[in-house]
Amino acid sequence: MLNNICVNPLLWIGLYIVGYIIAIVVLCSNDIQTIVENKMPKSIVRIFIFLTFIAFPVILPFSKGPKMAIPTFVAFTIGIFLLGVNLYIKILAQSQIGVSPALKGKEQLITTGMYKIVRHPLYLSNGLLAIGMAILLRSIYALLFSIAYTFLYLPIMLLRSQTGAWEREEAGLFHCFSANEDLSYIFLENRQLCQKEFYCK
């Protein structure tokens, strides 16, 4: 019976929805964000983020459900390609910001590479991961979920903007580079015109 529960797609979709709602609730309140950032162990936060936004999209395609009527070779080729692109983006973006994107001091402003093209390349890579896994295993439920999963990042980005999360990050970045007039100008110019994501590295 436990095996039947574990392969039920509704279980994993339900767990994702619960995690997503928790994330939205946190992002809707500056007070809750402050508590999470200052009082909750970082390891717990990382585990929550991993389970909600990485583990569930990977596990869901292995659950029971109807399969896409496409040849195995085609599904394998497209799936592996998308997973490869996901891995490339993730490695490239992560290598540019380091293991943790937290501000660590007055170092290097990142405005090149993936962060010159996409504001949140790691969000994009997660969407490709979900879609790639769904196609690779030909899971219709997972494919439908992956499309919704990708677009559900939009409210998260909007809420981060409205609650001041980006502004706090950008304020810290500007402070980080305010001693350098040229870099400060570049930061403000790119922030106003391109609205890309920047990190101190």
Automatic annotation (TrEMBL):
Membrane topology reported for the UniProt record: Multi-pass membrane protein
Cleavable signal peptide: none
Main location: membrane
Keyword Transmembrane: yes
Gene Ontology annotations for the cellular component aspect, listed alphabetically: membrane
Gene Ontology molecular functions: protein C-terminal S-isoprenylcysteine carboxyl O-methyltransferase activity
Residue ranges of the TM segments: 12-32, 44-62, 68-89, 128-152
Keywords: Membrane, Transmembrane, Transmembrane helix
Location within or outside the cell: Membrane
Protein name: Isoprenylcysteine carboxylmethyltransferase family protein
Organism: candidate division TA06 bacterium
